[in-house]
Amino acid sequence: MKLTDTEKREILKLIEADKPLPDKYRFMLFDDKREVELVWNGKTSEVTNLVLPFQVIEQVDEPRNSKPIMAVNKRKSGKVIGDHSRTAAVDKYPVQRPLFDTRGRQKSGWTNKLIWGDNKLILSSLKNGPLRAEIEKEGGIKLICIDPPFDVGADFSMDIEIGDDTFTKKPNVLEELAYRDTWGKGADSFIAMIYERLVLMRDLLVENGSIYVHCDWRVNSFMRLVMEEVFGTSVYRNEIRWKRQPPRGAKAISRQYARSSDSMLYYTKSDSYTWNAQFKEYDQKYILSKFNKQDKDGRWYRIDNIGDYSEKSIAEFRKKGRIYDYPSGKVGLIRYLDEAKGEAITDIWLDINEVIVKQIRFSKFARQ
Question: What are the start-end ranges of the H helices in 17-128?
Answer without folding.
Answer: 23-29, 119-128
